[in-house]
Write a structure and sequence with these properties.
With 412 residues, the protein is an all-alpha fold. The protein contains 19 helices and no strands.
Length: 412
């Protein structure tokens, strides 16, 4: 058998055994605490303002609770996967998320109740987040791990397309409370039963493909390494740029003279690029050194940020948004891939959960940071210039990770 034929055969075997779990991951991530709240809250702003008189900023601040509390939720999910297994982490997480979303439909006119509902989405739904899904795919795929992660985590892009449509339809029929009920119903009556039917039973032999290796570091050992902190800080820099750009993109374009409809078209290009980025970059990192792939993607995204900082027209803005979208489609699956390659699978869920703390902090701070820059400078221009700097800083940091360690090399 040739040197090229062996990896191809191994990849085919992986997909025959576990391809359905990639599809399940894409479906499951449409209802995760890191995707469902931020991608749908915009639909609820107008009806909540109309009923309660809350400001737009006060309503959108709820995302600080659903995303920012990932500081607690991600490590908790990592510990649950390690102790109870993937299935017994994901299923309660989906049930908890559905319950929390349903709770948002029952709030009164006190803003703290709204924030409490979004905080519950993060904490009760923690098990349904990226930690468990990344662990599932990383443990089942080795030869084609990057592509599998890219395809599976494209569920975040699917969420950005499908779930707002469901919320919008339900709000039009039954009001904002009906919108939350519809999102809870999708989670509890569609996604949860699918996961219950197709997730493997818990136990190491079921959670990890026989061809993969469980060698690697413990979480406590990983935290003491240089690579852990480089990876965490680099990911935080990238997510400061991405997490601030996403909610600021449409306001930037409207401030620059585009109509809301044209700005929505640009945002649509961004969503398509997110899915394309996950799949394309996932395939590339299976063949090439992942930090080098990230350098190309993040440099292009930095160029997109610079273009957007100068009030482009709709065509140029669409191209720039697509460049940023490709980067937005890579950050979390790239993190999972790099954790597996540099730290191994032995304690993957806990290491990934601890590194996700960097993402949660950055994601919680980024919209606020971009808003402060907008208020002080009078435009989003300097925020997007800062985004370009963050992206290049993150790329430079990833390059410092160095070559992939040998299987038995656990030095940081």
């Amino acid at each position: 058998m040739s040197a090229d034929a062996a990896p191809r055969l191994a990849a085919r075997q992986e997909w025959r055994r576990s391809g359905h779990l990639v599809a399940l991951t894409a479906i499951g991530l449409t209802c995760a605490p890191t995707t469902l709240p931020p991608y749908t809250i915009g639909l609820f702003v107008a009806p909540l303002r109309a009923e309660f008189g809350w400001s737009r900023g006060a309503i959108q601040a709820a995302i600080l609770f659903s995303t920012g509390l990932g500081v607690l939720g991600a490590p908790m999910a990592g510990a649950m996967v390690r102790r109870f297994g993937i299935r017994r982490t994901l299923l309660p997480g989906l049930a908890g998320l559905a319950l929390a979303v349903l709770g948002a439909a029952m709030i009164g006119d006190a803003l703290w109740q709204f924030y409490l509902a979004y905080a519950a989405m993060s904490l009760l739904g923690a098990g349904a987040g990226g930690v468990a899904w990344n662990t599932l795919i990383s443990g089942r795929f080795e030869t084609s791990r990057g592509l599998a992660l890219g395809l599976g985590l494209s569920g975040t892009g699917i969420c950005s397309i499908v779930m707002p449509q469901i919320a919008s339809w339900a709000i039009a029929l039954w009001g904002w409370r009906g919108g939350y009920v519809a999102l809870a119903a999708v989670t509890a009556l569609i996604v949860l039963p699918l996961c219950a039917a197709f997730l493997p039973r818990d136990g190491r032999s079921d959670d990890v493909h026989p061809a993969t290796s469980l060698a690697g570091m413990s979480a406590s050992a990983a935290v003491r390494t240089r690579r852990f902190w480089i990876l965490g800080c680099s990911t935080a820099a990238i997510y400061l740029a991405i997490g601030g750009s996403i909610p600021s993109l449409v306001p930037l374009l409207v401030d620059g003279g585009l109509t809301p409809r044209s700005a929505a078209t640009v945002m649509g290009m961004f969503g398509v690029a997110v899915i394309a980025g996950r799949i394309g970059v996932g395939a590339l990192v299976d063949r090439f050194w992942a930090p080098a792939v990230a350098l190309g993607v993040l440099t292009s995204a930095a160029l997109g940020s610079l273009i957007l900082a100068h009030s482009p027209g709709v065509v140029t803005a669409s191209l720039a948004a697509a460049l940023i979208g490709v980067a937005a489609g890579t950050e979390l699956d790239l993190l999972g891939f790099l954790v597996a390659r540099y730290f191994g699978l032995f304690d993957f869920p806990r290491i990934y959960g601890r590194l996700f703390v960097f993402v949660a902090i950055a994601a919680g701070c980024a919209p606020l940071l971009f808003g402060l820059i907008r208020d002080s400078a009078g435009s989003y221009r300097y925020a997007f210039l800062a985004a370009a700097l963050f992206l290049m800083s993150g790329a430079a940091g990833l390059l410092r990770l160095g070559p992939y360690p040998k299987p038995l090399d656990t030095d940081g």
